[in-house]
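Forwarding the complex inputs:
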Amino acid sequence: MTAKKEISDLLVAAAQQAMAAGDLPSIALPDATVEHPQKSGFGDYASSIALKLSRAAKPRQALDIAKILVSHLPASAIVGQAEVAPPGFINFTLSDNWLKRQVETIVAAGDEFGSVDLGKREKVQVEFVSANPVGPLHVGNGRGAILGSTLANILAKAGQEVTREYYLNDAGSQLDAFFRTLWARYRQALGQEAEIPADGYAGTYMSDLAGEIVASEGDRFLRLPEAEALTALGQLGMARIIDWIKTDLRNIGVEFDVWFSEKSLYANSQFDQAFSLLKERGYVVEREGAVWFASTALGEDKDTVVIRSNGTPTYFASDIAYHYNKFVERGFDRVIDIWGADHQGHVNRMKVVLSALGIDPSRLGILITQLVTLKRGSEVIKISKRTGDIITLREVIEEVGADACRFFFLARSADSQMDFDLALAKEQSQENPVYYVQYAHARIASILRTAAEKGIGYEDGDVDLLSTEPELTLIRKMLEFPELVELAAVNLEPHHLPHYSQELAGIFHSFYKQCRVISEDDQLTKARLKLVHAAKIALANALDLMGMTAPERM
RNA sequence: GCCCCUGUAGCUCAGUGGAUAGAGCGCCGGCCUCCGGAGCCGGGUGCGGGCGUUCGAGUCGCCCCAGGGGUACCA
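Prediction (whole assembly, two chains):
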């Protein structure tokens, strides 16, 4: 349990006791939320519960209520001091003794440090990237990939049973356009006249892909009937693109548990099942030769086509079947979809269709990542798969490195549009927060190596000797880590991690400057070795959640 | 037009209705007899505008202004 939660519980207990004793009227308790005061001097945690209670408990003043609560506060090893401050805050200072002992707790927890218990273990699916296999990943895909993989890590750390999934659009009209483009490029590569379809993919990577295929397969597709050639060649091209995608993802540390085929939804009649259910419930209408989902019946602005007048299902049809599969067939308790800003219009429709299927829409969380504007200096680079050449994710990774790429993408909340200046990212490669954090880890590793070389063991180090301000500040900051994991897991907000890791690294560097670890004082040396070992664990675990490396040397 | 996201320091961005709004970069000064100077210490400027709700608003509501995205029988 985090200190935060424990203090919150103490407050609730105090309020209940005060009411039982008649010192406070029996009223409903507001959330006993506890926060870190912005300014030092107000303790480690502060609660404004008395201010919130004062309205209902009139004519009691908030300050008096705070005093009453403090007087009923149960004894606790965690709290060193609980003070009342106007206009009615209760400020808690952690006990030094308890703080010191947490070093042992952290070292004992090791990789598990930071794990939190949200009270229930749910089966959670995080679906992300899911880019169509029609071209290389761009930086927008990269943002989703990094956000999704980190969020999955965080949820796992918070005790959830997490499945990471990539939805592969291996059917549909965009793939069809990809097939036709590749066919044209293939014929061009073999010296034939061929025109790129108007709705095709103009990027030069398509010519490269066609060239690769000619090199390995020759002209054998020309000897097939055209329809057959188109499909056979297309499948081969798609497989190669998927390989590119997998390679890029691996290079930024993103792995999936499941690659889910859109096509399989039709082969396994998931679509038929979902569709019949919708029909049964009266949400299907036929009009203008097409089949529609009656979204307007559930408050949407317009109905949505599910089956086109030419008989082919739309993307939305697949999405209905896919989410039916997620919730009903596979039984996920919660599903988190991470989509790009261009899918924003689908959010409500998706939630509405879940209601229509009888699935509680609150079980689906949809995160929209806002656009990434790629820049090189002041020059804006337009991202579009369809209008020609693009800066791919691969190029960005090669330029700035996977760790830096992850850190920068993670540091911004998904809601914020962001500028990614390649020139700047490269320039900053030394003065970069990424290295600042990793350097702290490497520095600790170096200290521990030095200690090992000198044969200093610190298992028996006495944490009671840790008493100076820099030491205790470092411990305090480490203890925020589990709280942060909980915050990020509950709010689906990974962007707190980079900020936290920078703060933790900063406090460590400051400690390092002020406190010599390996000194003539054997006992203090051992105690401090234990402390920096704990700090190394905290840094490593934070970096690990972010999918970054924690280098022993730099 | 309607819907969604965003406007916080020169720049890039944090900020769970609370007390004196933060970080990094950039800029200007300091700090290496000592475990890694990719480090430390100091220096300053800001919540787009207005009206509300509240004991208390950067945070919630409404209106306005600005930027971006969506609004297909594309995905």
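The mean pLDDT of chain A is 92.
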